[in-house]
Amino acid sequence: MKKLKRLQNKIIERMLRTIVDFLARSSSVKAMFEYYGVPISRIYDVDICFSDLPVSAKTKDKVIYINSKFLEEGKLSEELHYLVHELCHWLQQECDDPYNRVPDKEAEYLDMPSELEAFMYQANFMREFYGDSVAEDYVDDLLDFHKVKGSERAKKREALLLDT
Known about the structure:
The model has no long low-confidence stretch (mean pLDDT 89). Helix content is 58%, strand content 9%. β2 and β3 form a beta hairpin. The protein has 164 residues and is mostly helical. The chain has helices at 2-24, 27-35, 68-72, 80-94, 113-130, 132-145, 150-160, and strands spanning 47-51, 57-60, 63-67. Strands 1-3-2 form a three-stranded mixed sheet. The N and C termini lie far apart (47 Å). It is globular, with a radius of gyration of 16 Å.
């Protein structure tokens, strides 16, 4: 049983390495690292692991946690954009970016500058690899989910779909 677990861990490590290699070549990810003045080679220093989460992914204390459902369902390659979002949070934490400070508890999720920035890079990555319509649909779904309407919706949509 221990051999099987070690083999599974090796497979997961290799898979993550392949994913990180792929992300390191993305112009969206490169732009994000450049913005923070962090060499793209540091992407290999990021701790990434799988965990049972109530959300798709999260970054805490410079560790990226990805929902294990993506691994179990074999859909991680379809959901790489979540990893791009979390890499932005990793950079914010690594560089002690003031955008990453804990916001007022009353602040709406999409009013947090750290989240808007991460979603912007995520949308750019989606545009790069999945196409404009997929990125736009994702942003529209995100705004629907957070019940953003009217002129606020138009402003947020435009900001989230800016090129980096």
